[in-house]
Amino acid sequence: MAAPSDLGFDPWDPAFLADPYPAYAELRARGRVHWFEPTNQWLVPHHADVSALLRGRRLGRTYLHRFTHEEFGRGTPPPEHEPFHTLNDHGMLDLEPPDHTRIRRLVSKAFTPRTVERLRPYVRDLAGELVAGLVERGGGDLLTEVAEPLPVAVIAEMLGIPESDRGPLRPWSADICGMYELNPPPETAAKAVRASIEFSDYLRELIAARRKEPGDDLISGLIAAHDEDDRLTEQEMISTAVLLLNAGHEATVNATVNGWWALFRNPAQLAALRADHSLIPSAIEELMRYDTPLQLFERWVLDDIEIDGTTIPRGAEIAMLFGSANHDPEVFEAPAALDLTRKDNPHISFSAGIHYCIGAPLARIELAASMSALLEQAPTLRAAEEPERKPNFVIRGLEGLSVEVR
């Protein structure tokens, strides 16, 4: 097992953030598990191990369903972070059975395939309008003019958030998601706490309004589920709505800009896509694999596990490297190559197991709608300049993507 200083894994180094994939290849070559001292985590870079761990039951997103902080050898979170943890810890992403099972079942009733499919015309029309505006202006920032407004509007529409109230949603989400980075600094935590309070207060008022006048939206559906035998608490409703908004657009926004930047850097693949729009479904899967929006997913070790002869004890934290797993040559032929026709593509960008992304079908509809609109309305779309990478590792994206239409 390599010493931490020799791993080549440095999630705070701009050069690493620009292209982490060579470092991942080195990690995979050196072994199946590595101790990383700066974050006190075990790094797991291989697809087979990540996939198995996501589906196993000896790891958990939380440990509080079985242990106290003290029993698990962990300190209590700082009291000033309490609003963030109250919001985060009641969402199904950070819960384990039986609470996870109960909440996901109830959310699934409101988040049905029929509900998602009913949104398809809205998504298609909105994507077309956003791209038409971009084309009319001769270009602009693909991030702020198409990639962000589309999924934010869609999930807000689904939740029943009025258009007049949608302005703060993206800033709140960005501030909350800052806490998912490795070793977030105090100022990041302070922003996350403030956003958690403001977002929760807003949703509490919206839930009260929907109780009086229910609508055909997800918030009303969650209230109906709540009122059946009191199976969803108000906090669970709030946390679920925030999770759906954050997860429902963070990945889609970053997949869009990461994907188009990858296409611009692979002109032969972009030309093939422009010539054959039937490649859109496989292109989406390949772009999600090629430059993964969520690079790392953490789990707690609830019972001792062994990986390649290394015992990882209860109380430890595992960092599963999705980006590395998606470039594992044991699973993907020529993983460093962008291949929009790739047939066998078991990427794990939407996770796996009980925490598989419930919004994956909606994300695929959104990505297909924006890609289709851009291919149809902006066939000469090109990058105007090289974009700046966000200084984040876990949630991988760009500061912007300036494009031209000629």
Helix and strand arrangement:
Elements: H1 14-18, H2 21-30, E1 34-36, E2 41-44, H3 47-55, E3 59-60, H4 82-89, H5 99-110, H6 113-118, H7 120-136, E4 139-141, H8 142-147, H9 149-159, H10 169-177, H11 186-212, H12 218-227, H13 234-264, H14 267-275, H15 280-290, E5 296-301, E6 305-307, E7 310-312, E8 317-321, H16 322-325, H17 360-377, E9 382-383, E10 402-404
Parallel strand pairs: 2-8
Antiparallel strand pairs: 1-2, 3-5, 4-10, 5-8, 6-7, 9-10
Helix pairs in contact: 4-11, 4-13, 5-12, 7-9, 7-17, 9-13, 10-11, 10-13, 11-13, 13-15, 13-17
Description of the molecule:
- The chain has 406 residues and is α+β, with helices and mostly antiparallel strands.
- The protein has a single domain, classed as Cytochrome p450, CATH 1.10.630.10.
- Helix content is 50%, strand content 8%.
- It contains 17 helices and 10 strands.
- The protein has helices spanning 14-18, 21-30, 47-55, 82-89, 99-110, 113-118, 120-136, 142-147, 149-159, 169-177, 186-212, 218-227, 234-264, 267-275, 280-290, 322-325, 360-377; strands at 34-36, 41-44, 59-60, 139-141, 296-301, 305-307, 310-312, 317-321, 382-383, 402-404.
- Strands 1-2-8-5-3 form a 5-stranded mixed β-sheet. Strands 4-10-9 form a 3-stranded antiparallel β-sheet.
- A hairpin with a 2-residue loop joins strand 6 and strand 7 (310-312).
- The longest helix has 31 residues, at 234-264.
- The chain is globular and about 60 Å long.
- The chain starts with 13 loop residues before the first helix and ends with a strand.
- Mean pLDDT is 92; it is low at 1-5.
